[in-house]
Design brief:
It contains 13 helices and 22 strands. It is α/β, with parallel strands linked by helices and about 525 residues long. Strands 1, 2, 11, 14, 15, 18, 19, 20, 21 and 22 form a ten-stranded mixed beta sheet that branches. Helix 1 crosses helix 8. It binds zinc ion. Zinc ion binds next to loops.
Length: about 525
């Protein structure tokens, strides 16, 4: 899964759909063993953490192509199974960078890594910046709800300081959409701002600050074609340590503690100019990088419906080689997302033996960890007719670390794919629940969102837990210790039966959607309907 600038977790109690009676045990197609064999190869040290553009990723993709070829499935890239994608890679050179606050004319230097770090997903300006700062609350403008954190303040030449999250009055899907970095920047750019400083909510983050800051000098990327650059014009992008945030607030009449307390409970936040100025300089090394998506097609059997494609997507890239943790530098990404790659390979082999009315497209996307870039490219330039894509099921870090009894479905209420998912899980006595951690913003944090933005109904399912259960702690500990760490490798304890059951449900779901008379539809009241061309 992709880690955005900052993340917050809040748990809400929501009623679950309960199916008390287990129907007769359905046929099993997976045992977890083939899945685990694929994970072991893809997450092997030899693949060097599969960084986009790296030799390790090239090897992992070659393995995927070899396995797909064995199943007899058809290539559907532009170059055999491959769809080459060009990127610009940006790496911060911290020894040529500086940040400081100016308070009453005096310079207070800040320490990169301890107080804040530059975000090179943005094409940072290579010039000295001197700008005043304005606290913009959650930094959201949501016309549908008449909500505007920018209203009544002057943004010309200013840098916005925002605290992540959103007020409780805003529905989750709307809030997720407007927190998309490109959407957020569009609003501030139009108001005249030149940058954004993001403060993560200290109450609960996926990663502790020290781990977020650890790989801050690792290269970030964007698609090379400028038509994809949604962050153009942003000169400054900093993530600020919440533990240092009082430095920004001092003299403003507010404290960071007061703001964090409000944000923790999704209360409205005040907005006001800060009394300090930012003085900063960033230096970035840039490089061209080429990598590729890998795409395969299982043609449908119905003369008409075979022209409709159901996408099964999973990102194949991970973080590569980075700063060591406990002496290990290779970020293997076994669960993130060797697990999804392995599922696609298992599914291609299994569905190859079925007769499905619609066609299935298996899409292994690259550069997810760089900001969902491979899927962004594919969704904009699909290798089949764009109008023929009717659904996306994205598999990213589905986490078979506990027995599968609860399945969390992101996008559950947005389209009839959610109803199909509930039905697909029912024979296995698995409860389907909506995303109950809205502040984690999961729906926009993996590749399904690029399909959603092109009007294609999409779902992402992951193994989950009942709030308050012992399993909750297992997930929390996994995020703290293994998520985006070198220890997300094949020495973890994984529940193969849980992975196999997840695969069965996914298989059920794919078959029912592929064979249904009607193509998937957004719900009438879904916010995301607006993207249907
Ligand atoms: Zn990830």
């Amino acid at each position: 899964m992709h880690r955005p600038f900052a993340l917050v977790i809040v748990l809400l109690q929501l009623p679950a759909f309960i199916y008390p009676q287990a129907p007769p045990s359905p046929k099993k197609h997976f045992d977890g063993k083939t899945w685990w064999e694929h994970v072991k190869v893809v997450a092997d040290d030899r693949m060097e953490g599969r960084e986009t553009g790296s030799e390790g990723l090239r090897k992992a993709e070659a393995y995927v192509v070899e396995q797909l070829t064995k199943t007899g499935i058809q290539p559907a890239g532009t170059d055999g199974f491959y769809q080459p994608v060009k990127f610009i890679s940006r790496q911060i050179v911290e020894k040529e960078c500086s940040i400081a606050l100016i308070r009453n004319g005096a310079v207070e230097p800040l320490r990169l890594g301890d107080d804040a770090f530059f975000n090179t997903r943005v094409d940072l300006a290579d010039q000295e910046i001197n700008a005043s700062l304005v606290f913009a609350g959650y930094g959201l403008k949501i016309p549908e709800k008449n909500y505007d954190d920018l209203a009544g303040l002057d943004w010309k030449g200013k840098i916005a300081v925002i605290l992540t999250g959103f007020p409780a009055e805003i529905p989750t899907s709307l809030a997720a959409h407007y927190q998309w970095a490109g959407e957020r920047w569009r609003v501030f750019r139009e108001a005249g701002a030149i940058g954004i400083i993001t403060i993560p909510n200290p109450a609960s983050m996926d990663l502790p600050w020290s781990r977020s800051a650890l790989n801050r000098t690792h290269p970030q990327m964007d698609l090379a074609d400028p038509e994809f650059n949604e962050l153009a014009g942003q000169k400054v992008a900093l993530t600020f340590n919440p533990a240092s945030a009082e430095k920004l607030l001092a003299g403003s009449g507010h404290t960071f503690q007061e703001l964090a307390n409000l944000a923790k409970d999704q209360q409205p936040l005040p907005r006001f100019p800060l009394t300090v100025f930012l003085k900063s300089r960033a230096h970035v090394d840039k490089q061209e990088v080429t990598s590729a998506n890998v795409i395969a097609e299982l043609p449908g059997s119905d003369p008409v419906l075979k022209n409709q494609f159901i996408v099964l997507s999973a990102h194949i890239d991970h973080l590569g080689i980075g700063e060591p943790i406990d002496g290990d530098r290779i970020y293997n990404g076994a669960m993130d997302n060797g697990s999804g790659v392995a599922l696609l390979l298992d599914m291609a082999a299994s569905l190859q033996r079925e007769k499905l009315r619609r066609s299935i497209l298996f899409v292994f996307v690259v550069a997810e960890e760089k900001g969902l870039l491979g899927s962004k490219y594919f969704a904009a330039r699909p290798t089949v007719d764009a109008k023929s894509l009717v659904a996306d099921f994205n598999v990213d870090m589905f986490l078979p670390i506990v027995p599968l009894t609860v399945l969390k479905v992101k996008g559950l209420a947005e389209s009839d794919l959610g109803d199909q998912a509930t039905l697909a899980a029912k024979p296995f006595n698995v409860r389907v629940v909506p995303d109950f951690q809205p502040l984690r913003n999961s729906f926009i944090r993996s590749d399904q969102y690029n399909f959603v933005r092109h009007g294609i109904p999409a779902l992402n399912m992951e193994i989950s837990f009942d709030p308050g259960s012992p399993e909750q702690k297992i997930f929390k500990d996994w995020l703290t210790n293994h998520y985006h760490a070198p220890s997300d490798d094949v020495s973890q304890t994984i529940q193969l039966s849980s992975a196999a059951l997840y695969e069965e449900i996914m298989r059920n779901l794919l078959i029912s959607v592929a064979n249904a008379d009607a193509r998937p539809q957004w719900k009438k009241d879904s916010f995301f309907r607006r993207y249907v061309p």
